[in-house]
Amino acid sequence: GASEISFAAMASTFSIAAIFLPVAFMSGTIGRFFFQFGVTVSVAVILSLVCALTLTPMLSAFFLKLAHEEEKAPRAIHIILVLLISLMIQIPLLILKLFAATGSLLESYCWPVKFFFKYLGNSLPIFLDPFQFLSGKQAWMAFSLEVVIEVLVLVLFVRYFKLVLWAVQFYILKPLFLTPTDWVLNLTTSAYSRLLGYSLKHTNLVLVLGVFIALATGLFLGIGILGQELVPSEDQSRLLVHVVCPVGASNQAY
Fold it and tell me: Can you give the residue range of the structural domain that contains 35?
């Protein structure tokens, strides 16, 4: 689990933070320019450590469990429990509808079905928009229609939520994410193990190659191909003109 990589993750994180965090406390012009840079990098690596020790193990356990589960659809929730859950959601929504009658702040949240049809009203004929069709009818008919649609949506959502989630997991997440990720990880692990075995058998070649790369890098930086300056030049899309005139000259003369 996370305990196996905690020491390595903490060591790499603190080594990076130890380099960039002091930049934020440097004085002078360099400190002003690179204060945000040092703070951003340090906070980012520390938050990545927290994520690696908390969120990543949880997601790994979830996806690994998903990969080993049988491809068997779960049963739908019992209809009695579905009705109870839908009733527990619908009663507060009805109370909010009464409060929304006195103001428009909660109106779009308390009447979701009505505002959904209102959003589609420009592209729907009048007989397909029930609230527009009932605009001239009695208000209780529109109210009843709203409640019936909400209850039906809640019942279907609560009853088949587990089934929909299972279908998304096995027919979307698994073929699009889990299977390709496993293939890439297996390929990377195989290539790394072969490269590591070859390097251990030919240590002299690896040493010579490392020295050559270090010398080439130093030579590349030493001959001045890459320019060095504190603040790189940039195009600010401005044109500055400095005019030196004789003493006492007027700008109207030019």
Answer: 1-68
Smallest CA-to-CA distance from 106 within 93, 122, 118 is with 93
Positive or negative CA dihedral for 194, 198, 201, 203? negative
- Residue 217, judged by CB atoms within 10 A of its CB (0-12, 13-18, 19+), counts as exposed
In a domain, 219, yes or no: no
Total domains, the chain: 2
The verdict on pTM exceeding 0.70 is no
Residues 61, 84 within the same domain: no
Same domain, 89 and 134: yes
Residue 33 shares a structural domain with residue 59 = yes
Residues 6+ apart with CB under 8 A from 111: 97, 100, 146
pLDDT, tens digit, 9 for 90 and up, residues 68-98: 555 566 666 667 777 777 777 777 777 776 6
